[in-house]
Amino acid sequence: MNVDKLTENIVDQIKEAQIKLGYAKETVRLYYPAESLCTLMGVEPMDTKRLLDYLKETAVLSEIPLGELQFTAHKGRIEVRIPPEGAEYVHQKVPDPEFLTELIGFFGSHPHCHLADIHKIFAEFSEDYVCEKMPKGTDFDYVLYFPDGSVDAYYYCVKEEMGHTIYHRFTKEDYQALV
Predict the structure, then answer these.
(1) Angle 35-41-44 (CA atoms, 0-180°, nearest 5)?
(2) What range defines the domain where residue 108 resides?
(3) Is 121 helix (H, G, I), strand (E, B) or coil?
């Protein structure tokens, strides 16, 4: 099991929420589709019940002190519950990623932005980024990402709808499963 990749993803999700909403010393709940969690941890696909048992047995230990994680199953998804000391650790010890902070700030102050505006933010951090039209039938219009992952390893799927623009962030593996 790849504990580091799971821990990194948990920390990234908490940090994104803290940038968007602010910090509160409270329990954080993250929900992962079972298939996505298996891919993230590098284990063979398994049903939700087996995955839950597996997580509880291995007790996900990490170098990063997030506290005692708790796992429960909800309709094909696994809830990962991170105690308040985990949220506090991320707030105090994990720096805000510059790119993500800029992107979230922009979306927060420009809900009616256009793709060209988003291009400017990506280009500000590296000219080496990709923007592709999403395949028909997906819930998004475009995907933008940095191929080498050096600026940011996530894939940002963008949707322009009724005058508003939103993004959703995926791991490379989850993006590939999406399309």
Answers:
(1) 55
(2) 98-178
(3) helix
The candidate with the shortest Cα–Cα distance to 80, out of 10, 146, 25, 19, is: 10
Same domain for 144 and 159? yes
Q: In what side-by-side order are the strands of the sheet with 155-161?
A: 130-133, 142-145, 155-161, 164-170
State whether 80 and 132 are in the same domain: no
Predicted TM-score (pTM) of the model is 0.91
* pLDDT 10s digits, 50-61: 888 888 777 655
Domain boundary among 58, 93, 128: 93
Run of H or E including 82:
strand 77-82
What's the CATH number where 25 sits? Answer: 1.10.10
State which of 93, 118, 148 marks the end of a domain.
93
pLDDT tens by residue, 168-178? 999 999 999 99
Q: Choose among 130, 128, 126: nearest CA to 155.
A: 130
